Each structure stands twice: as C-alpha cells, then as structure tokens.
Amino acid sequence: MPLPRLRRVRRALAGAVGVALVAASLSACSLLLVPPPEGSEESLAALADRLRAVDGVAGVETDLSQVDAKDDPHHWIARVAVTADGPDIDLADDLDRAAFGGVRRAALVLDLHLPAGEGTSAATLDVLDAASVTLADELRRVPEVESVVVDRHSAQVELAASASLRATVDAVRPLTDGLRTSLTRDSAYLGVGPTSPGPALLDRLDAQLAAGRLMSVSLSVADPVAGPVGPTLRVETREVVSVAEELAATTDEEADAGTRDRTGFTVSPPGVAGVDRDVDGWLGLPLGSPPPPSVPRIMPDAPPAPLTEAEIATPDLTEEEAAVRAFLNASVALTGVEAVVAVDGREQCEGTSRVRVRGWVVAPVFLRVDDAQEPFDAVTASWTDQGLRPVDRALGLDIWAPEASGASGVAGATIRGTAEGLSLSATSACGA
Questions:
Q1: Which terminal residue of the chain, N or C, has fewer Cβ atoms less than 10 Å from its own Cβ?
Q2: What is the pLDDT of residues 111-133, one digit of tens each?
Q3: SS (HEC) of the chain
Q4: What is the pTM of this model?
Q5: Sorting pLDDT into bands at 50, 70 and 90, what band is 15?
Q6: 34-115 has CATH 3.90.226.10 classification
C-alpha cells in the first residue's frame, strides 16, 4: 500500500538529516586523525635502536602521540621508557648521549627505570633533566625510601613499611628544595612543602599510625606561590573524637610563629561520607574554636605594563645585536660548517620595561660529520670557557647562562640537536 505523501516527506527528511549527521561526524573525526609528522616514526624507531644498543639497557618501550588530539593535534610527544638491568645511574649519561638529536618534529621525554641495588632503592627519572638525575640519585640513597619517581616538576617518594614519617621528611625535605614532593606509605599520603608538615604533627601521625589507630591519612600542602596557605589534613579512624582531640592538642610551629596559616584537619569514621559525623578543627586550638585569622598576605608590586610593538622597536640595541651576532658566529665557526645567523628578535625583559634581542642559527653539521656530538662538545666547551654554565634542560634543549652578568655580551644561550643539525640561540642582556 503506498505511503501517504506526508509520511513519505517526513521519512525523506529524516534520511537526509541522518546522512548529514553521519557526514558531519566523519568530517569531525577526520580533523582529529592527524598523521604523525613526516619522519617522526622512523626517527623514534632509530632512537629506540640506539638506546637498546647501550650497555646496561634491559628494555626500551616507545610511544608517539599528540599533545592533545582535540585541541593541539599538530604537536607530538615521543615518550621513551628505558629499563636498566642494574642500579648504575651512570647509565643516564650514556642514554643522554645516545638520545642526541631527539625525535624528528616531536618533543622527547626519556625516562629511565633503575632497579634497587645495594644501598639504593628503585628509581625512575627524567634522563634529559640533569637536576632530576641528581635528585633521584640522592633520594634513592635515603634509608627510609622504598622507591622514587622524579621529573623536572615533582618528586614522588614511596616509603618502606617500617619507615618513620618524621625521619623521612627530615631527610627528604633538604634534598627536594621546594620541588613539589609527596610521600606515600600504605594508606598514608603526605605532601611535603618547605616548612609543612611540622615536626609535632609528624610525630603525632607516626604514633597514631604505629598504634594502628588510623585507617588513612592525607595531607595536602599548598603550592608555595599561593603564599602562606596552611595545609589540610584528613584522616579516617574508628576513634574519631579521641584522634581529633589529640590533633587539636598538637603544636603547629609555623602558625604559632605567624609565618603560615594554621593547619586545618577533618577526622572521619571509615567509609562514611556524612559531614555530620566528621570532626573539624585546627592544630593547636581546642575543638570548637572559631576559624583562626589568616596570615596577612604581602601583595607583590604590579609588574610593568607590556610594551607596545613600537616601544619594543624604539631602543637603540646596536651593541646588544652585535654581541649576540658575534657570539653565535663564533659558535658556528667551531662546528666546521657555515650558516647565516639571524638577529631579528626583540622582547621585553621580565619585570622591567627594558628590551633585549635574540638571535638564532641552525648549523648543518651533518654535511660534515655523521655524529653531531663532536661539534656539540666543541661549542659547549667554548661557552664554558666564556663563563657560561648549563642551568636547565627542557625536552632536549640545553639552557645556558653566565655565572656573572654580561659574560660574552650575552645573558643566555641554548643548544639543541635536531635532524637538520645544531640549533643555537642567544639572548642579549637587557638594553635600554
């Protein structure tokens, strides 16, 4: 029986809408299916082969992925995880050299896992960050430490089952020097800041944990940039009132000295979410006390207003441009190849209204050598002779700065191995 005309029209419209939705969905998906940069997969595979050939390597795993498939699909990160066959941390230097040049058109993250050894715990560290390697080596030698994971942003420390929180914090805090740090042991998690948690709280938690009175512990420490914000402690226990009373009687050294807000706590029975059964309070104040006043914040001076393009272009920076150009030309000369230096960037110096210049160059060293390590070493040796020292490393980029201001007429320099050669940059001191 023929369909009525109205029903046929509706069915036709529904079919058309369905086709349109499917097409739109496929179109959206196609935007996300961005292929890896040309040559990146082959470059990553070659890097993995070089790393596997390094003495002391037990295994290598790789991953190549977008920074964000939705919001940043065109930038890629190559992640490489190396497992060592022994605890020798000198392997990090060998891997660093083998990773020279990185991965074509992708940022490189290179982690090394070291098993426990005699007098050292297991450790995972960022090979490309010298500070992470040094810190991981120091932390894995702390007797109370079971394992560590260190990168340029944080240190995660797992404690041995018998370790004292107080002893571990006392040993770890001077080493991490303000780096975001956390300690874990069974169901206990503690953030560690420059001054928090204090000795009295650590002694109290050690005693309560040793007696089996706490089901879980979590201490959150504010980022130092937030100012003197006090930590927040949450514990679960079957002895809610007595544990809360003990915490309320615990000294908060920094709060008593007026240098930080008082530590707040919440004590809850295990597995109960009802707020009415929680007991809240502050260290060093009787239960039921009103909220203590906050430590006055020191407001930083407002930074200078951003300069306009015209203001950045106005100062005469002839001397600064000449210093940067001479520095980079001398560096290129050490590589044995020729390259044209560009000194055409200007930027406002942080926290001031002054301006500096930036120059850069790529030295095509692979036209002369197969291994860029020799010209790399020649350049950095020259920088060392001129009073510069490596101060940081970010995704394969070595960042150098002078020990004394004005060394060689530059305030900073970078060097990175790429598929095209050695990429160099230099920044002048702040001019007018």
A1: N
A2: 999 999 999 999 999 998 888 99
A3: CCCCHHHHHHHHHHHHHHHHHHHHHHHHHHHHCCCCCCCHHHHHHHHHHHHHCCCCEEEEEEEEEEEECCCEEEEEEEEEEEEECCCCCCHHHHHHHHCCCCECCEEEEEEEEECCECCECEEEEECCCHHHHHHHHHHCCCCCEEEEEECCCEEEEEECCCCCHHHHHHHHHHHHCCCEEEEEECCEEEEECCCCCCHHHHHHHHHHHHCCCCCEEEEECCCHHHCCCCCEEEEECCCHHHHHHHHHCCCCHHHHCCCCCCCEEEEECCCCCCHHHCEEEECCCCCCCCCCCCCCCCCCCCCCCCCCHHHHHCCCCHHHHHHHHHHHHHHHHHHCCCCCCEEEEEEECCCCCCEEEEEEEEECHHHCCCCCHHHHHHHHHHHHHCCEEEEEEECCEEEEEECCCCHHHEEEEEEEEECCEEEEEEEECCCC
A4: 0.68
A5: low
A6: no
